[in-house]
């Protein structure tokens, strides 16, 4: 089973930036698509961004497109989410997720059961 550990969350004013990082275990990170999800209090988790297995393609949901950037560093077995121009509605726990299958795309895998999950990191955006 893949293990994931997020870091980089915190408190930031609207318009500010944060960079989230996800460290992974195992020897097959470079074969898996990776993703970031956000879950606001009392709401369902939302697919925020994804990167395919080899890093050639990325996807961001419309609400963050142009402000967030997902990337991966296969040499370090990490995936990052650069979050710029943060908005209060971006307040959420952000989870790193790894596709359970190999050679996946940047897009949502249709079910949360298709991912391994980290514990999440809190992002709070103040007005």
Describe, in plain words, how this protein is organized in 3D.
Helix content is 0%, strand content 46%. With 127 residues, it is mostly beta strands. Strands 2, 4, 5, 6, 9, 10 and 11 form a seven-stranded mixed β-sheet that branches. The termini are far apart. It is globular and about 40 Å long. The model has no long low-confidence stretch (mean pLDDT 94). It has no helices and eleven strands.
* Proportion of residues in β-strands: over 45%
What is the N-to-C order of secondary-structure elements (H for helix, E for strand)? EEEEEEEEEEE
Helix content: under 10%
The total count of strands amounts to 11
The helix tally amounts to: 0
Low-pLDDT stretches are: none
Query: Can you tell me the overall shape?
Result: globular
Radius of gyration: 13 Å
Q: Residue-averaged pLDDT, rounded?
A: 94
Question: How would a crystallographer describe the biggest sheet?
Answer: 7 strands, mixed
- Terminal CA distance reads 39 Å
Based on secondary structure, the structural category is: mainly beta
Summarize the structure.
The protein is mainly beta and 127 residues long. It has strands at residues 4-7, 10-13, 18-24, 34-39, 46-51, 58-60, 68-73, 78-83, 92-99, 115-117, 121-126.
Write the layout of secondary structure elements.
Elements lengths: L3 E4 L2 E4 L4 E7 L9 E6 L6 E6 L6 E3 L7 E6 L4 E6 L8 E8 L15 E3 L3 E6 L1
Overview features:
127 residues, mainly beta, seven-stranded mixed beta sheet, four-stranded antiparallel beta sheet, globular
